[in-house]
Amino acid sequence: MKQQTNKGQIFARICSVTGQGMWDGWVFGDGEFYAIDEMSAQKVATDMGYRDLQDAYDNDAAYWTDWAEDSEENAQYIEIGGILYDYAGEDAPPEIYGTEYKPIK
Known about the structure:
Elements lengths: L2 E2 L4 E3 L1 E2 L6 E2 L1 E5 L4 E3 L2 H10 L5 H6 L3 E5 L4 H4 L2 E4 L2 E5 L6 H4 L3 E3 L2
Antiparallel strand pairs: 1-2, 2-8, 3-4, 5-6, 5-7, 8-9, 9-10
């Protein structure tokens, strides 16, 4: 699902494997890792020491979710010209972030 602002495309999370922005996908642990698709989720699961994604799921280390329902609240990143930035939102006060966007390091 694409979420657009007048400045760029926004995302809820970033895939830990591909670096792509995402609105739904797999969450590992307490949000330590995210995976946009099953192939990426398999990689994260095995890197964490599980046999596969099913093993991680069975051990409550992974679950699938969708952040799109409340996109305004869940938007955390924005892509502008192919570069991802932390997204403070259209109404972010400058005293909190200094500027509206902070590049991801």
